[in-house]
């Protein structure tokens, strides 16, 4: 059973992911406006994992909850000391999944992307990631 470790920048928050295999995680880029704003970059990069795979080992993130723009609450957890973004989950996924910010993992190569969402909002200068799925929004 692979175990992946991660933390915020200042390490006040540390966590471990317990997965049955790396394939249990679905890492994806998202080019939507919400991700851009939340990550402070031109896309978000998260690994979807089962809720029970995520184990906080040090500290406790601050939670920010807001309407995602379509009436669904989205929860974002981050370090209240250094500001690093750790994970997110929507109201519907709340009891089942966590979306881990991949940059917070100690091994950046551990969970490579399987796809891209909201490609219609991709920055014009950013090339597609090859050999992964590409969806214009979430569903399509
Ligand atoms: Zn921190
Ligand atoms: Zn997004």
UniProtKB/TrEMBL annotation:
<keyword id="KW-0456">Lyase</keyword>
<feature type="domain" description="CENP-V/GFA">
    <location>
        <begin position="4"/>
        <end position="115"/>
    </location>
</feature>
<dbReference type="GO" id="GO:0046872">
    <property type="term" value="F:metal ion binding"/>
</dbReference>
<comment type="similarity">
    <text>Belongs to the Gfa family.</text>
</comment>
<dbReference type="InterPro" id="IPR006913">
    <property type="entry name" value="CENP-V/GFA"/>
</dbReference>
<dbReference type="GO" id="GO:0016846">
    <property type="term" value="F:carbon-sulfur lyase activity"/>
</dbReference>
<dbReference type="InterPro" id="IPR011057">
    <property type="entry name" value="Mss4-like_sf"/>
</dbReference>
<keyword id="KW-0862">Zinc</keyword>
<protein>
    <submittedName>
        <fullName>Glutathione-dependent formaldehyde-activating enzyme/centromere protein V</fullName>
    </submittedName>
</protein>
<keyword id="KW-0479">Metal-binding</keyword>
<dbReference type="Pfam" id="PF04828">
    <property type="entry name" value="GFA"/>
</dbReference>
